[in-house]
Specification:
Elements (H helix, E strand, L loop, with lengths): L4 E2 L4 H7 L14 E5 L8 H11 L4 E7 L3 H7 L4 E5 L6 H10 L6 E4 L8 H13 L3 E4 L9 H4 L5 E2 L3 H8 L7 H15 L2 E4 L3 E5 L3 E6 L10 H12 L5 H23 L5 H12 L7
Parallel strand pairs: 1-10, 2-3, 2-5, 3-4, 5-6, 6-7, 7-8
Antiparallel strand pairs: 8-9, 9-10
Helix pairs in contact: 2-9, 2-11, 4-5, 9-10, 10-11
Length: 289
Amino acid sequence: MEISNFINVDSKFIKNIIKPRNVQSRKGDNGIVLIVGGSRLYHGAPLLSSIAALISGTDLVYTAIPKVNLISSRMFSPNLIFLPLPDDKLTMGSSRKLLSLMPKKVHSAAIGMGLGISKINSLCFLIKKLLEDKTCLILDASALIPDVLHEITNTKSIVTPHPGEFKRMFGQDAGQSKSEQIDTVIKKAREYGIVIILKGYWNIVSDGNLVSVIERTTPSMTVGGTGDILSGLVSGFLTKNNSFESSILGLFFNGLAAYNLYNKYGLHLMASNLLEELPLVMKDFDVLN
């Protein structure tokens, strides 16, 4: 295993990196997030991410989804601001339309949750333009492809693969043992100048220098949608914290909420249950200044 700075994550560490909220802050001061995802099949993924981003403490979330999902999504929650995309899948036209629709500069963006992609160059174009605008990025699910590596190299963008997506993105297995996976994640994060969250029983996070392992709190987290909520949480924290800290915060609170729900429901929780539990576990870490 490579020598690196190992970070032990506990409640004390989390309290030290949580950013306080100014009591005189105004709407927008605590973060503006863009969520880009959804398709005819996976309509719920960007909604879970968007609500999670709001719960993290960010002020505004813009949710870009195919217009075919717009009516049902508006019925899901009155708390979200939707940016309807003209095509069912991400096209160059959809990417250009999205960039023209955004009414404010966003601090962070999460891309890929349930997203259908028609042309790879449309995804790369969107990533490039957001980075040019100094937007911090997290890429998940269908956005985890090797084509994006050229755009995100040395940007400290966050990628959130499970082992299969890791192999697709980087062209190699992450490894089988814990030590192999830690070594591989550190190497790839350092090589590309990004932060990697390798999801699994061991959630391994590294920026190429710092590394942390946060063990999954319950096997009930294998239910679909928990990864979408993680991406939303991380995108919210990314408006205030650096990429490594944001990844740690997202994993910690997602796992803590799931553990509490496991004690209530056993193996029968749904991802949407996390949205109800997250505020309860996060409020004990709130700080004002």
